[in-house]
Design goal:
The structure is a homodimer.
Chain A (H helix, E strand, L loop, with lengths): L1 E10 L6 H12 L4 E15 L3 H16 L5 E9 L1
Antiparallel strand pairs in A: 1-2, 1-3
Amino acid sequence: MKFKAFVYVTLKSGYSDPEGDTTADALKGLGYSVNKVRASKAYEVYFEGKDKEQAKALIEEMCRRLLTNPTKDDYRFELSEQ
Amino acid sequence: MKFKAFVYVTLKSGYSDPEGDTTADALKGLGYSVNKVRASKAYEVYFEGKDKEQAKALIEEMCRRLLTNPTKDDYRFELSEQ
């Protein structure tokens, strides 16, 4: 079975986010009332799995092993069948 | 009123995505049956607006003016009240 996972990787709160701060400053410079911006990464992963249960375990493992740094990142994902 | 927008920026299909390709290769190297990975960016933008209508127009404008490159990027956003 084919699955698609949409994975969002954000910095844990407390970590400084220079890219987000710069983006917020740039938006303020353009005249918008922006309070804060957090920049993050997202991945669409298309992969194979036996069933939804196993697919969920697989994508969790991929997140922990490669896509995120568990020390500084939080992540969440949405899994759907293709 | 305070709003939070979650903006996803992806490359239009047809554009090559070296970061996604490299991530897919790395996942395959770890033994996962991955077909494709698309890497993208996400922003959480906290900003002020008069009402939901105006907030939607504002975030659309921010996307077009700063957060995305309309030539090569697609974007979508989720807007919520804070």
